[in-house]
Backbone:
């Protein structure tokens, strides 16, 4: 495969240029195990490990290769083995708080162009979960697309689609049936172009792997039966993996996440996800309104008038609290900066989400 087919472009080429003369080659992480990675490169597939120096110099787990990363390797002559010397800066990254109570950022996927936020139109359907995924997706730098799957199980998928569109802040909303549509790729084709990377995220059992199999045209990924009584899914997919689809797009399958713990979500992101609430807050009488019991509070007025859904407001308050907590834990200075940014937004200033993330 040539490099552009794997998603390579000038951004990565520029960062790679210092390594080019020293016999290094770039490769993309397709699969990460505990100690080894599977890489795709112009010279084929490698199994690779990080050099001791890279391990030593990486202050945090996030500095090490994740699925979707571009890495700098030195192939071992005559072997399908390589050493990873460096991780190139990420253009985008989707992170969450690692499982357990540690305050550790975990990179779910790197250098993704689009995230398909997959939800099933079944009895577990949950608007609040979509809101939460959307908030993290805006923060990732990738374009979110809300995929409502299992449309065959719902009597009126178009109505849900319309409802979700009202809270999607401009993100496209597509209803499909991965299992039943003649070709589910038709509705999603715009994001499946050659060399473009799409990560599928969503609860276990939502149908991510089923959809990927349909995009691949083969049952490559294991899928799970839905016959579980607790509705918690079965976590059929156990690892993240980047796969080259026949369309030439690069799709990343991920294990379902029951709990999506936010990782230091910035205020601009919440602004993006809750543009309606931000607009309301700008109309409160006091610029530092806490939207609690202050006179002239536009938020409380909207709640009373029924024009703001109380569940949506609660969801916003919860996400805000959670992000403040994560930010404080991660970096007290950042937390202060975050609050300052939030104040600016409540005064009506429009802040775009970051489109490029730091490495
Ligand atoms: N009725 C219906 N069932 C579907 C559809 N898509 C997937 N399923 C079923 O839903 C179940 C779960 O699908 P998976 O593709 O394994 O779900 P997943 O999101 O990959 O789940 P994890 O790997 O656990 O995260 C399987 O039994 C699928 O056959 C659909 O469009 N309609
Ligand atoms: Mg799966
Ligand atoms: Zn207010």
Residues:
């Amino acid at each position: 495969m040539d490099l552009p087919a794997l998603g390579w472009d000038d951004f990565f080429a520029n960062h790679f240029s210092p390594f080019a003369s020293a016999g290094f080659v770039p490769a993309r992480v397709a699969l990460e195990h505990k100690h080894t990675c599977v890489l795709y490169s112009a010279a084929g597939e490698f199994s690779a490990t990080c050099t001791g120096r890279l391990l030593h110099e990486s202050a945090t787990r996030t500095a090490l290769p994740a699925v979707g990363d571009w890495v700098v390797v030195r192939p071992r002559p005559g072997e399908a083995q390589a050493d990873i010397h460096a991780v190139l800066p990420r253009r985008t990254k989707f992170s969450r708080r690692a499982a357990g109570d540690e305050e550790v950022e975990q990179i779910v996927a790197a250098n993704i162009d689009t995230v398909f936020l997959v939800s099933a139109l079944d009895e577990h359907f949950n608007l609040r979960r979509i809101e939460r995924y959307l908030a993290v997706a805006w923060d990732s730098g990738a374009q979110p697309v809300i995929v409502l799957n299992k449309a065959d199980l719902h009597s009126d998928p178009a109505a849900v689609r319309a409802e979700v569109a009202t809270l999607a802040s401009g993100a496209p909303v597509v209803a499909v049936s991965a299992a039943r549509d003649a070709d589910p790729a038709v509705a999603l084709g715009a994001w499946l172009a050659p060399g473009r990377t799409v990560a599928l995220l969503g609860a276990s059992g939502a149908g991510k792997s089923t959809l990927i199999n349909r995009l691949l045209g083969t049952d490559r990924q294991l899928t799970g039966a839905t016959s579980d009584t607790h509705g918690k899914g079965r976590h059929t997919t156990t690892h993240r993996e980047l796969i080259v689809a026949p369309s030439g797009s690069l799709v990343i399958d991920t294990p379902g996440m029951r709990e999506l713990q936010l990782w230091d979500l910035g205020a601009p992101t919440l602004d993006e996800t809750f543009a309606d609430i931000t607009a309301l807050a700008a109309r409160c009488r006091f610029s530092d309104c806490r939207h609690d019991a202050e006179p002239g509070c536009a938020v409380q007025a909207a709640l009373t008038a029924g024009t703001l859904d109380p569940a949506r407001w609660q969801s916003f308050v919860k996400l805000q609290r959670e992000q403040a907590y994560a930010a404080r834990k991660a970096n007290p200075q950042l937390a202060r900066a975050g609050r300052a940014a939030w104040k600016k937004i409540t005064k009506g200033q429009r802040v775009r989400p970051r489109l490029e993330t730091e490495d």
In short: The longest helix spans residues 310-330. The chain is about 30% helix and 20% strand. Residues 122 and 153 are 6 Å apart (CA to CA).
